[in-house]
Design brief:
The chain is an alpha/beta fold. It is built from nine helices and eight strands. It has an eight-stranded parallel β-sheet, with helices on both faces.
Amino acid sequence: MDLIDAHLHAESLSWANLREMSMNGIRAAVSFTVSPWRAGADTNTQIALINRLLRHETWRWEENNMQLFVGIGVIAVSVPRDVEKFFLQMEKFLKEPKVVAIGEIGFDPRSQTCKDLKKQEEILKIQLKMAKARNLPVVVHTPPDLGQVKLDVKEKYHKRDFMERSVQLIQDAGLSPETVVLDHLDSEEWIRFALDHGCTAGITIQEWRDIGPDKAANWADEFGPERILLNTDTSTLPSDHLGVPKAVFEMRKRKVSEMKIKKMVYENPVDFYRLSP
Ligand SMILES: [Zn+2]
């Protein structure tokens, strides 16, 4: 079965990783622009990353019999210090044929590059407006639920506040909710929340989130197949680039039908991002 990883960060993958992914059935993925914020981010680093994804990473994927698509945006965890300058240039990259979405974007109270939540909201609003104007799907990052995720976070916050505000802003922007994925949903409560609000629900199979292929398979079976996307968010943090094929393996062990599996790991991402793989 052909598989699509609906959200990852391609610059963190080695050639050997790409070969393994391809040999395990992955045919395509969508990579999003998050700059390494500990090193500091400005418009130039953001544009260098976009160019790397569009000109170099797409080539590495093709060499390994896969296709890479790209989403562009400013997420609260890595806001370029001259973000206004970046927004002036963002539009031209949205016209690139490999760019299929605006993302990932969204609040994060852990941000080290933009602690001001009002500014985070402004940055999110600008991009939701761009998505509406260009009729593009949107990937909205949601911060980890501190009650669910095994992670040492010094900031104290409630995920619900950011979920509710994000949904409000999506509605205010006039976007059709199914064209927006609320991503990194780390409990049944949040998957239900996304689906109840008409949004697409993103399940991230990733070690540091304490979501393994077994948990993801259970949730996908319980809530899928409509408006469910599976991804690994493979990045420089503890991740598993084979998370999607492993979740498929777990679903087969649970006797989930091939049709239902295919819908979630291939048809849904093709439809959501309007891909032609
Ligand atoms: Zn991500």
